[in-house]
Here is the input.
Amino acid sequence: MINSNIVTISHVKKITYPDSSTLFRPSQFYPEYPFSEISKKSNEIYDAVRNTLYMLELDVDQYGSKNWNPLGDIIHQGDNVLIKPNMVMDINHNNTGGTLCLYTQPSVVAAIVDYICIALNGTGKIVIGDAPMQSCDFTKLCKDSGYDDMIRYYQKKDIDISLVDFRGLISTQRKGIREEKIIDSSIGCVVDLGINSEFYGIDENTSQRLRVTSYDPRILPQHHNGAVQEYFISKTVLNADVIINMPKPKTHRKAGFTAALKNFVGINVRKEYLPHHTEGDSAHGGDEYRKYSSVQKIEGILLDKKNMAISEHNYRYSRFFDIGVSVCRLLRKKSNYSEGSWYGNHTISRTITDLNKIVLYADKEGKMQKTEQRKILNVADMIISGEKEGPVAPSPKEVGMIIASQNPIYLDYVVCELMGFEPRKIPTLQCVIKNEKHLYSIGNTNPEDIILKSNKIDFNKKKVSDIIWGDFLKFEPTLGWKGHIERDT
Here is the structure.
């Protein structure tokens, strides 16, 4: 059984990912390894993932033998297993950042797939899926990254595995303006949290002010209003018996940082159901920006009109409003932030908390149950992480770690601490902690209960409070969080 208090940190010496030419195979033959191909190039990533599973105390009695089955306690033969990586975008908007710090790398995923194959033993189904940003070229991402090569490797071995884009809406740029295309809404299921949503009880005015960047603002209030608190979740997610949550921890403009909890934003088919910020300044009940600004108010109105025009396929008007938005952005003070991209955003944290309730307690038909409906293991790719303007314009941060835990709150707490941030200043962590005694509790929330296990002596068998300043990775936050969340020396 998994000890839910353990957070494992597996550290590699050589901070690099193997490329797809190796098919992400291990560079040594382990007793339990289910295939025959071995890479001639070193693959420390595979070794780190394997070591992480061992340190989680999974099937320890069989470790070192051909019968070692570390995922056997959570994956049973015949299960539908979903791997949920972070595949946010195909290109880094930071022109010098590259993609190694942007999305979960397939070499990390491949090692987990091997152990899923051991547990399924020729049965069941594996899906790797995510809902990236609407403008992401999913085909390009899968080809360039090596995900396609990885999938073909397993399919040639008659393993039932597929790569799925959860999005029901995508957009493309044409003559400088975004054009939307609806794909297939039948791939999703509406899940209504009702009175158990973090948004239940907000007044009508606040409901009308909920926003998600780049989407028609008229849609969101229809799904978060009074007793109706709806999310549009992928049926693939709901059909899963087990989810291996594989985030790419990095800084995040709206949430401060992203790791296991935030990664479940990518289970949605239609993101118009996802409140990301509340229109207006903090003094008037909003969290879009800090101080009232007439220019920023006008910018918000024009942005809404632009998004409504795009939704109606009226691209001539959308281009007109886009010019107005650009003028406002030139005139306003950048220090006032925008689109909820600052430490005062208390909207996205509630959305994240709601989604984590759904992923644990919604059954295959999307109905909330009192008992957990699926098992979840979190394995984070922090070999090369991202700092500064994440999530879509991060700068590379060489960390060299694979971090894992059954408890997403504990994993996020440890990642937050290692980044050098104060957990008490992260709204998402505070929101899930407040939710602990809720009907849909996400997990234990006392950081003093966390047991660190690592091949790095600085962390092994220590509590989080034992980590000294010199062990912090000192991530640089995004501009909207800088000077607020960093831990004092």
